[in-house]
Amino acid sequence: MPSLPLQADVLGPDYRVETISLPPDSEGSVVATLVTLQAERPTGRAVLHVHGFADYFFHTEYARWWADRGYTFYAIDLRKYGRSLRDHQTPHYVADLREYFAEIDLAWWRITRRDGHREVVASGHSTGGLTLPLWAHERRPSELVAMVLNSPWFDMQGSAWLRSPAARVAIERLGTRRPLQEIPRKISGVYGRSLHREHGGEWDYDLGWKPLESRPVYVGWLRAVRRGHAQLHAGLDVPCPTLVLSSARSYFADRLDDHAHTHDIVLDVEQIRRWASSVGRHVTSIAVDGAMHDVVLSRPEVRAEAYAAIQTWMDAWVRPTTSTTGHGSGEHDHQSGDPDQGDDGS
Predict the structure, then answer these.
(1) CB–CB of 310/243 below 8 Å?
(2) CA dihedral 293, 298, 304, 310 (to 10 degrees)
(3) pLDDT grade, residue 6 (50/70/90)?
(4) Of 80, 53, 83, which Cα lies nearest the Cα of 191?
(5) Which residues contact 304 (CB under 8 A, 6 or more apart)?
(6) Residue 48 belongs to what H/E stretch?
(7) CATH of span 9-317
């Protein structure tokens, strides 16, 4: 396989990073960022991971779990998120989730055509777990062999009114007229504090890229998400086996206590399970007892169960894999031609 780009990532020298230039939008230049962890014993298999809202890729344990099994791990920071956010941009804003298809397409080209991987597992968390099935349904790449969705955002949580026809019409109208109007909401910061090691959690990450208080929500962006939800609810046809992981229970906490570490305090897991079968014809849904919203950031014993579930599912429905290190529990690790010639990080 071709050698990886030589630029080291903020996660350390084992992680390589490259910037993908995209067509500018009304705010100016746009980029996405692809982070790669090479498998020590490459097998021609890879993973492409897409993060969630107000998030970016920092999940070194998750990446190494796949790399230990022969999968070169790629993660993309989408436009206006994390490594890809620029000073002139409105964080995370898009008017249509299909805008993300451009960077996913270019990442897929690098993984399959440039780097020669023949089998790719798509991985998505939360909002990324909505965007990725929409992309796979439309693109249907031949190299896609499996999809793993970690607490995907499949519906609007909260009051039933928010899912009503009247709310849908209101979001559509306001999203058209004033797309950058911020939606007032109360953010407790409990979820962020439950994760970050300086605030009661286990993990270290950049609070500038993943703020404790999340990010503003704009009407035009929410309209894009609700349109994605509607497409999912109408039924997708993702052409590969799909695993949907979630916590066993939701609990919308307003203070940092044990519930925040053992429940999904962001999304309604009943909605996740309700809509899981809408992804495609072959879907397995597993609720992991004691899991957090980001299942692979749960407490050690819980994420060990999650990794075991992924392994069992992969062995059953994709193909047997063998760890090159002998570790099957996901133990914590702290830390050619190109179709677009505008890359500045390769």
Answers:
(1) yes
(2) 20
(3) low
(4) 53
(5) 329, 330
(6) strand 45-50
(7) 3.40.50.1820
